[in-house]
Amino acid sequence: MYPFSLQDGSILIVTAGFACHVVFGRYEPVKPLSHMTLLVFVPGILTTTVSSSFSSTVRALAFTYLLYYTTILTSILAYRLSPFHPLAEYPGPIPCRISKFWMAWISLDGKQHKYYSKLHQKYGDIVRVGPNELSFCDVNAISPLLGYPGLPKGPHWDGRMAEQTTIRALISVRDPAEHARRRKPWTRAFSSAALKGYEEILGKRAYEFVTALEQQKQPINLTQWISHFTFDFMSDMAFGGGSDMLRDGDKDDTWHLLESGLPLALILSHVPWLGQYYIKLPGIGADLKKFRSFCQERALRRHHQGSQSKDLFHHLIDEAGIERCPPTFAEVASDGVLAIVAGSDTTATTLSSLFWALLDNPTAYRRLQEEIDRYYPPGEDAVSTAHHQQMNYLNAVINETLRLFPPVLSGSQRSVPKGSGWKAVGPHVIPEGTSTFVHLYSLHRDPRHFSPMPNAFWPERWLTAEERRSFGCPDANDLAKATVVHNTAAFIPFSSGPANCVGKNLAYQEMRTVVCLMMQRLDLRFLEGYDPRSWDHDLKDYFVATKGKLPVVLSPRTCGRHDNPIEGHNDSELTLPCSI
Ligand code: HEM
């Protein structure tokens, strides 16, 4: 080694730095041992080439590491910003193009959906939001990216589910063939026949929920009550019970564990290789780890108890013995955790947003109340699903809520597999190794698809002009003159294609049942002093949205039809169409 001059040694270090960047770019090593080798051992060995030029080993080490890291960083920076990068043609802010750490930083405050939305307004329908990632606000991208055969799930799951080293939850299975195999029991679990079987479990929980609400004499935080209800219901479905948050509150801190782990999970999804460190460090992500082991323990208990009813677990574990190759317990346990996370927070967010929107829009509240009173007058069983399909206004209110506040605000990632070459999305070529997603928040509020008032809660947009008239909308005539754009192809709150939300029908059933029962039996109003504008402000995007408080005052309805309990409230959104 000693014959090296400082110049020769430096050239060697710089060359090794470039080589290191190439290795990272091509093989994307994630294991800490690979990182140690490339980032610690290699420069350590290279120090010997320059040590004779320095008065001490410490100085030689400092020089080598500094030069090595500077070379790597310069090389990465130059490449990612250069016209030679495969995504060079796509516009995006410089920090996004340089590193995913930027998005990890931006997403910390839960406002990444707003950030992406601003980027789409500035840069257009396709934005480069990471060195190798594109966000789409383009209805024509839905089918190529998400539809059949679509693209496999993206690497963001590698970080999010890092501790699931051997068996992964369905949502994060990246191999399409394996994903299709794992999805089979889920599809059966949400067939029409299976859903019919869940009516009893749902009805029982919904009655408990609304009865408990009826007893509340003081103002309540409705989001918390709804969250506890959805959690109890999904626990019934996934683990045959074991949770009674409605009765006991969050005494085990479970809901807190679920939501407090979300910001870290989002960071890990932006920088997936960090996941390998997260699983090894005992203090990091304790809440996330605790929540997952809590669910796993419930799954184990449910497995030992055996079947009490045909719940979700019954189908997932294949208790009926239908599958030739039944899923393993490990697979089902990890899917049980998924059922709780995917099934409770999403519906809780939608239901909470729905009641917020109704209370903020008295005309919509009144119209829905009238419809519910027509189909479910006093004495009528409001948890029966018999009328759900005919209830156009109810379905319009749910869809309008999902349009404005999709619980997965920024959509779910896909990636163009390495070795596949590229993927065509209309006239655009998306090179292999690129991660992509359709940004739901931007797409759902795009005036090219939803107009007028793309940012306003206006359920009437989901009705035909004829239906609008049948509701006696005073705005119907004015709207007949306005151009109403309503492109349902751009409405994908449950994503799309072979890996979309498999629980969609259960979610609709649950939301319709709860809304009908609550509005049959309760009047709601905002607590005086509550500022409705805080809802949007408090809504945070941690892949699954989290929401703020919704303070409401409840009063039992004594007879079926009531005057609008919030008559006189300033209903600014709904006066707008008349002035178009
Ligand atoms: C309003 C309610 C809900 C919304 C808006 C929603 C939305 C979504 C979205 C956007 C995805 C990602 C799909 C993708 O990767 O493309 C997803 C996946 C999933 N959801 Fe839902 N979800 C809801 C309720 C539920 C419920 C009640 C369940 C029941 C357990 C559920 C179970 C799942 C599962 C298992 C997946 C993974 C599907 C797969 O990868 O094949 N979801 N959901």
TrEMBL record:
Annotated family: Belongs to the cytochrome P450 family.
Superkingdom of source: Eukaryota
Transmembrane segments: 36-54, 60-79
Cofactor requirements of the protein: heme
Pathway involvement of the protein, from the record: Secondary metabolite biosynthesis
UniProt KW keywords: Heme, Iron, Membrane, Metal-binding, Monooxygenase, Oxidoreductase, Transmembrane, Transmembrane helix
Protein's name according to its UniProt entry: Cytochrome P450
GO molecular function: heme binding; iron ion binding; monooxygenase activity; oxidoreductase activity, acting on paired donors, with incorporation or reduction of molecular oxygen
Binding site for heme: 501
InterPro entries in the cross-refs: Cyt_P450 (IPR001128), Cyt_P450_E_grp-IV (IPR002403), Cyt_P450_sf (IPR036396), Cytochrome_P450_monoxygenase (IPR050121)
